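Key result, reporting period 2: structure in, sequence out.
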């Protein structure tokens, strides 16, 4: 039977766009919604390459994103080859076991293992799940914060982040952005933190505005009336200093006390607002923040290398670096695969 006859027998009638994909022998990107039949089209394209282009199953690299999807893809493609038995080369079914149909991270890990010693890694690298990465980052964060050599960085970080947020918003974020491939950009990560801090600064100012308005509408008296003018001027001109502007000495009005006590955690002397303001408005301490990023990233990568435990980002970045830099290995893969198909490319 011909390829067309097999499709008819299986009641598969591709539309014009699907047929273009199935018959394509060039680089092709398919954009379609859920349920549009992308996976089915991929399996039919696999069969057509074997039937009409003389491609061996092991010469087609087929990748997807989950183990379940890879298993289903393997079953579906094998079913296509069975449907064409007698119309495809005799060894196609026999050699199907050598076909690479796997998850993207599994294939990348295979590439990295082929050249792991170049990165100081053992061959038996293991996947570092998100939960394990979080635990590792937390363990190293405690070590970082207790190291006397990091006192300046620790003071800055502690003034910018609440203790409850420190892991998720600083150390955890670095852990997810850095890579063992060494191509992470500490300056870019620092700029991202600056953007996050700018958002926090703007949100804090937005919270303070109605409080200042409420105080301004009250009948303020004595020293606190003068104090309010100074505080409000600092708020408008974004020039808070280290001085404690929130002394309630002599203030008897319970409404004033209530509002001021709400403001203190946001922009009081011990709130970290001054440091936040200085980084956002003046760029102060940015170099210290970047040093903190670099130090923690190096600690994290050293530990991952020691344990041979890599994140998906590590594995994918290292695979790209390996194929870019190791010309001999790259040539092996170029000769092994004539076609690459990725389902659910993201």
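The corresponding designed sequence is given below.
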């Amino acid at each position: 039977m011909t390829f067309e006859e097999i499709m008819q027998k299986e009641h598969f009638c591709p539309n014009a766009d699907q047929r273009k994909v199935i018959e394509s022998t060039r680089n092709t990107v398919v954009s379609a919604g859920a349920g549009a039949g992308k996976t089915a089209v991929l399996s039919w394209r696999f069969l057509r390459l074997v039937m009409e282009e003389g491609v061996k199953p092991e010469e087609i690299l087929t990748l997807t994103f989950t183990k379940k999807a890879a298993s289903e893809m393997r079953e579906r493609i094998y079913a296509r080859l069975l449907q064409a038995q007698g119309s495809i080369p005799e060894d196609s079914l026999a050699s199907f076991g050598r076909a690479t149909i796997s998850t993207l991270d599994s294939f990348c890990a295979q590439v990295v293992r082929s050249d792991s010693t170049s990165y100081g890694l053992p061959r038996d690298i293991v996947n570092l799940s998100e939960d394990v990465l979080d635990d590792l980052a937390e363990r190293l964060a405690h070590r970082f914060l207790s190291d006397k050599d990091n006192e300046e960085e620790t003071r800055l970080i502690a003034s910018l982040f609440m203790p409850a947020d420190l892991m998720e918003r600083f150390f955890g974020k670095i852990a997810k952005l850095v890579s063992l491939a060494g191509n992470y950009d500490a300056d870019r990560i620092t700029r991202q933190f600056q953007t996050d801090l700018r958002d926090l600064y703007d949100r804090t100012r937005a919270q303070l505005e109605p409080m200042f308005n409420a105080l301004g509408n009250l009948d303020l008296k004595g020293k606190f009336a003068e104090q309010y003018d100074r505080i409000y001027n600092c708020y408008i001109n974004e020039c808070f200093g280290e001085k404690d502007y929130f002394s309630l000495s002599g203030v008897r009005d319970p409404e004033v006390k209530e509002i001021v006590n709400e403001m203190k955690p946001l922009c009081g002397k011990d709130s970290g607002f001054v440091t936040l303001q200085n980084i956002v408005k003046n760029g102060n301490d940015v170099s210290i923040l970047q040093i903190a990023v670099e130090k923690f990233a190096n600690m994290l990568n050293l530990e991952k290398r020691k344990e041979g435990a890599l994140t998906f980002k590590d594995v994918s970045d290292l695979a790209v670096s390996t194929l870019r830099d190791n010309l001999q290995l790259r040539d092996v893969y170029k000769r092994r695969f004539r076609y690459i198909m990725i389902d659910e490319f993201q």
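The first strand starts at residue 60 and ends at 64. The radius of gyration is 30 Å. This case is discussed further under Risks and Mitigation.
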